[in-house]
Design a protein that fits this description.
80 residues; mainly alpha; 2 helices
């Protein structure tokens, strides 16, 4: 069984690896979204959807009326 102690270079390399993994973890944690940020984004999206859906509901009857008018024009032009 080999009981030699690690050299200074080996210890230095291990410390560098530990420092690199620590900095990598902190950079990943700083780029992650918090729960509050996600809730705010969802609230903003909900507000946008709540303003957009009534406008789309109002536009639907108008589009159906234009479609009907266009069909009548095509029928008249086909009859000529």
């Amino acid at each position: 069984m080999n009981t030699t102690s690690p050299s200074a270079e080996q210890i230095f390399n291990r410390l560098q690896i530990c420092a690199m993994t620590r900095s990598l973890r902190s950079s990943i944690a700083s780029r992650a979204f918090t729960v509050v940020e996600l809730v705010i984004v969802l609230a903003v999206l909900g507000l946008l959807a709540s303003t957009l859906l009534p406008a789309l509901a109002k536009a639907r009857p108008n589009s159906l009326a234009f479609q009907c008018l266009n069909n009548n024009r095509r029928l008249l032009s086909a009859a000529e």
